[in-house]
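REQUEST ID: PR-0412
SUBMITTED BY: lab tech R.K.
PRIORITY: routine
TASK: structure prediction, single protein chain
INPUT:
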Amino acid sequence: MRRKTIAENRKAYHDYSILEKFEAGIELRGTEAKSLREGSLNLRSGYAKTLNGEVLLYDVHIALYRNAGYAEHEPTRPRRLLLHKSEIRRIYGKQQEKGLTLIPLSFYFNERGIVKVSLALVKGKKSYDKREVIKRRMQLREIEEKRKHGRS
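STATUS: complete
OUTPUT:
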């Protein structure tokens, strides 16, 4: 399976605890799809909400296509995500729980050239959680370093 990543939200892994991942299609206009092929996307502040049985993606900035002419799109308009009804119900139920948010992790083209969005149901990390993760990572790095020099 070949995927071409358009953009990734790496900061999400630092700021949130990821509970569950979903893959969704996205409803785009023609100039938006062409702009994505150029890689003009910012999804750092993006989030998704369920509304009237649909999941909408907010605050994802798809830049205007340079050669659009008269057919331009609004860069941060809400975009409908294409999910199965069972997934939408599951997301809606989880979002009713306190502190859970649905955010985009990455945009990519699948093997057929269709734009897909990788979403995650997340819970915000506290600053002490982030420090704990950094501390654990440093300890693992030190252990690996000792192991590496001990065998050489």
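NOTES: Strands lie at 4-8, 16-26, 41-42, 47-51, 54-58, 61-62, 79-82, 100-109, 115-124.
REVIEWED BY: pending
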